[in-house]
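hiii so um. not sure if this is the right channel but i have a protein structure encoded as tokens and i wanna go backwards to a sequence. like what aa goes where. can anyone help
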């Protein structure tokens, strides 16, 4: 019998502008997905100033996306998404179906006719932020030796990314090319996810980008701080007959019940937490993001 953990997630984004913004158009990927092991009990999005139009839909990848418009002049914009999510504790270990060699798994995914295999084809192709290359293939080959079990190889790849790359906030941006991340061996979670995806695609394996949250531990002897959690990113690889397996190279572990999924896509460009267009003579003076992921007992 599985045990569920309930989390309250608050994601607050605040923009302050140098001059009046006359119009704002925004899209959000902040609402948790419905998954076999994850259920969204409730969710609320508050936009300030009040949005003239707010709608929700399912996007191409099956994510819950929100769209809003603000027509009145404003010098600040605040978007707060609050969700209550229930996540099942995952069983220890990984399915034995992942014990087959990565070559056999790749062949089955290429030749199989199951709907999920056909849908996964686009995740094996290049995307703007995660393109395959001979250099990434060479790096991945050190983990994907001949006849090695797929899950072992994926775990090895993510462990090497974790040890070879330095986690350094501020060293990259969403515009930093992956080749530069690879050259300098530093970045943040989205960079490590993109690099792992590019390595897997270079091998011909489907891999997708996962955006969401990770509940973090407080420092020993201290209470959990407020506002220190943030959006997180990891990757997912398709295991034949078992489904998508999420793995986090930033923390060198498989994703478990402390991970909450909001969106999946080919790369970050498909699922930014908040994006849009503004009309103003000035620029963004200040951006603040605060995220809390709190277990509800």
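sure thing!! here u go:
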């Amino acid at each position: 019998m599985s045990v569920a953990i309930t989390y309250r997630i608050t994601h607050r984004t605040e923009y302050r502008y140098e001059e009046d913004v006359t119009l704002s158009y925004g899209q959000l990927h902040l609402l948790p997905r419905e998954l076999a092991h994850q259920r969204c009990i409730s969710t609320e999005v508050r936009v300030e100033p009040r949005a003239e139009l707010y709608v929700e839909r399912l996007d191409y990848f099956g994510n819950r996306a929100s769209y809003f418009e603000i027509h009145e002049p404003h010098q600040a914009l605040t978007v707060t998404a609050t969700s209550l999510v229930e996540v099942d504790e995952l069983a220890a270990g990984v399915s034995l179906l992942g014990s087959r060699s990565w070559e056999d798994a790749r062949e089955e995914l290429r030749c199989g006719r199951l709907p999920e295999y056909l849908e996964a084809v686009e995740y094996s192709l290049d995307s703007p932020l995660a393109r395959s290359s001979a250099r990434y293939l060479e790096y991945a080959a050190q983990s994907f030796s001949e006849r090695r079990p797929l899950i072992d190889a994926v775990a090895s790849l993510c462990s090497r990314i974790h040890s070879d790359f330095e986690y350094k906030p501020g060293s990259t941006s969403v515009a930093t090319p992956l080749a530069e991340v690879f050259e300098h061996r530093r970045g943040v979670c989205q960079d490590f996810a993109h690099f792992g995806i590019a390595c897997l695609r270079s091998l011909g394996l489907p891999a997708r980008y996962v955006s969401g949250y990770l509940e973090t531990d407080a420092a020993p002897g201290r209470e959990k701080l407020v506002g220190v959690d943030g959006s997180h990113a990891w990757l997912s690889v398709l295991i034949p007959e078992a489904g998508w397996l999420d793995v986090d190279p930033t923390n060198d572990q498989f994703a478990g019940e402390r991970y909450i999924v909001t969106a999946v896509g080919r790369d970050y460009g498909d699922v930014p937490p908040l994006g849009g267009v503004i009309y103003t003579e000035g620029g963004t003076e200040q951006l603040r993001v605060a995220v809390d992921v709190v277990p509800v007992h």
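oh and The chain has a mean pLDDT of 92.
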